[in-house]
Amino acid sequence: EAVTDTPWFLDNKFQASAATDFIELFDPATNELVTRVPQNTDDELRAAVDSAEKAFPAWRATSVLSRQQIMFRFVALIREHWDRLAAVITLEQGKTLADAKGDVLRGLQVAEAACAAPELLKGEVLSLGSDIETRSYLEPLGVTAAICPF
Hints:
alpha+beta; two-stranded antiparallel sheet
């Protein structure tokens, strides 16, 4: 059976990468090749950043309550597909199903915490005297990145 390369996702669609270097992903239980994950090109990385920058003004203009509704839906999707997500973790990493379900739980907890955004984004007001106060406002900043060491 032919192995399919994992596509990458840009502008709301999956597409094949132009990469020439791939990371092979093996099922730890059978040592069978499951997929090849592209090591995306510099141009593809730039396209991803450009896409995020293009989407940012609309996201910034989206109310906090509308963003919260998106997160509620995300939480519902995690709950709905819990077993499927755990099975993918098991396939990719060789974890037991129980351990993989624990990973899904931890991800769910992060998503649930993000649902508190309206409360967390209110900012603060500090009264320094009868006629002085300071205010802090929390606003989206734009494209960011995170590098995970695992």
